[in-house]
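Consortium newsletter contribution from the modelling node. Members have asked for a concrete example of what our holo predictions look like. Here is one, prepared for the molybdenum atom complex that several groups have been discussing at recent meetings.
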Amino acid sequence: MTSYVEQRDGIFPSVCSLDCPDTCGLLIHKKDGKITRVEGDPSHPVTQGAICNKVRNMASRLYDPARLTTPLRRTGPKGSDQFEPISWEEAIDWITQKWKSLIENYGGESILPYSFAGNMGRVNMVAAGNRFFHRLGASRLDRTICNAAGNAGYRYTMGATYGTDPEDTVYSKFIIFWGCDAVNTNMHQVMLAEKARKNGAQIVAIDIHQNRTGQWADWFIPIEPGTDAALALGMMHILIHENLVDEDFLSQYTIGYQELARHIQSYDPQTVSQITKVPVEDLYRLTHLYAEASPAFIRIGNGPQHHDNGGMFVRTVSCLPALVGHWKMKGGGALRENGDFSAPIFPLPADLDTQSKTTRLINMNQIGEALTELEPPIRALYVYGCNPLVVAPELNKVKEGFARDDLFTVVHDLFLTETAKYADVVLPATSSYENLDLFTSYWHHHIHLQQPVIERYGDSKSNIEVFRLLAEAMGYTELSLFEKEEDIIRQAIEKSSSPYFEGITMTQLKEQSFIKLNRDNGPEFPGQLPTPSGKIELYSQQLEEAGHPALPTFTPIAEKGSYPLYFIAGPNRSFLNSTFSNNPSHIKMEKGPFLIIHPEDASLRGISHEDWVSVFNDRGECELRAHITERVIRGTVLTQGLWSDQPGTNQLVNTLTPSRLADMGGGATFFSTRVDVKKR
Ligand SMILES: Nc1nc2c(c(=O)[nH]1)N[C@H]1C(S)=C(S)[C@@H](COP(=O)(O)OP(=O)(O)OC[C@H]3O[C@@H](n4cnc5c(=O)[nH]c(N)nc54)[C@H](O)[C@@H]3O)O[C@H]1N2
Ligand SMILES: Nc1nc2c(c(=O)[nH]1)N[C@H]1C(S)=C(S)[C@@H](COP(=O)(O)OP(=O)(O)OC[C@H]3O[C@@H](n4cnc5c(=O)[nH]c(N)nc54)[C@H](O)[C@@H]3O)O[C@H]1N2
Ligand code: SF4
Ligand SMILES: [Mo]
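And here is the predicted structure:
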């Protein structure tokens, strides 16, 4: 059969590779070998033919004239955009000579890979780099920038990131989007909730500003940043006092109810209302609607876990469905993520699993400190699928680290990103549409095979192709370092020890392009959970052993200090983190980075609508245009989108955010930032 790439015209199945929960099935339209249109696959049960605007316009990114076509060598100072083309042979030779000498003099731990989910393909994001850097003996990266605190918190309660099947949420009768801007960030959950609404469901959004999701919801509840655990504890207080709990469910499926019932006494509605600024009557109304719905569903967003107390927030909210017993009803429960259903499929191959020593682990949220303070120092970085000089916290420190003259940096990307400008060698990456890869979702249960649909762009290479070249030049001989994509994928799905993959074959996946995991094949849910007790842990001994309160608890966020405003810089609609922030087509859709500020906070500072303002704290400063609206609560300012630093701008929001770690999982605390604002 001719491959999709060889067929110059036609419509081909594909999958979105971006770090978005929806992992959409796509149809790629081609004419003369080039993509002319990208649409949602109408036959995909979750995508249902609908995709976001940013990916409908994917072709403008793929064919953006700024895309890299050859390897480059830096000729100007670090951070400049002065580079000259070199060949792949020269690039690989230079990198591996440098690494060999570093390994000989300082050991493999002097080298650090830095990567995240720019392309969610399991071969290119996970398997290839893990194998290669394990063989090299490099320092290990703790990949904590996204969801680490929240997932750690959820696991204390539920054992794994196992939540409601989102396709079942059409049966929910009461849906809470809790710190989740789903209209922008998880649009298919909105489509499913819309169906539920047609069947009588009510939709609530709890957020620090009335974003698009809050405007679409039936009821928007504004809350003080970082106080959500208190709100959930207040709900528990009312549920327990009014005996709205499901005692049968509690005795069969949970441990620690008696301890919890005593513990929540201190979270009476008045106290909780003072902490959260949610009026007492709203707290009662929310709790009653929640308990009386059959069933209720909570979509737990990523936002509130980007606070100092983010782990405990998720740990706490994830106890609520157990109190009312809604896990037993179709469409009831909660969903933080569902990634653990498809996670354990890429164990290290036997020929590499021979080293007894594990190397040092470096938290990616503290890359600035790691590069400027760590002993023995990191002397070389290999960055792929990630743009730390836009997305990592405490950017000025990160820049200081990347600017070190004695640091040898390689960046593999599709574009000359802010990070790539600090590289000694830049390598051009293929897009996911040029690769063979396996995709799993961290929200729904379908897995996808991406078969290459277009020719590679210029002289670009995929992550795994580069790792094979590097392995060869390093003189490594382990066969698993040279394994083909198809063999890695076949083994991952057909030899997986996961019950959810049982019966799925590569042949089937090639024919159908996506298949739903068999969730019912696993242990009974929520009957046999991977917690120490096998039950939902309202009381967690494990948490206590890790130095936290064993019961759900509210702890105020750490950063108070002398700056009067919270600063919350989250994602926007038209970018995917910093991806698209350098593409003129997508910048145009978004218009500009704005500072959203309450009228009273603006007038206190003499700021008018559309004024340019400086947002500042001890870590740095950035400049944004003020948008005055009552949709944001007083005392909090916010901005949306991780904008690149276009010439003449000063809009890198992470200049202001702290590299302090959250309470659990080494997670990031982007949203626990304090600032002040003044007219520029
Ligand atoms: N269009 C688009 N989609 C995306 C992304 C993107 O960049 N653009 N990024 C993807 C990625 S990597 C992720 S992790 C997800 C994230 O998507 P979401 O899960 O929606 O998380 P965020 O957008 O980070 O934050 C959600 C909301 O939390 C609110 N928030 C902040 N602090 C608090 C608080 O203390 N309490 C409450 N209740 N709310 C608070 C913010 O105002 C925001 O509206 O989206 C993915 N999808
Ligand atoms: N202030 C603030 N900061 C945040 C957040 C926030 O809400 N607020 N969100 C945080 C979150 S949740 C996340 S997940 C992170 C995300 O941060 P990142 O993981 O850095 O995500 P992107 O900014 O999308 O950058 C991905 C890069 O990978 C490149 N890429 C794409 N495909 C490939 C490929 O196949 N190979 C290679 N080598 N490169 C490829 C893209 O071109 C892009 O430059 O940002 C975090 N930073
Ligand atoms: S970014 Fe999300 S919503 Fe848009 S196409 Fe990709 S998976 Fe679907
Ligand atoms: Mo993320």
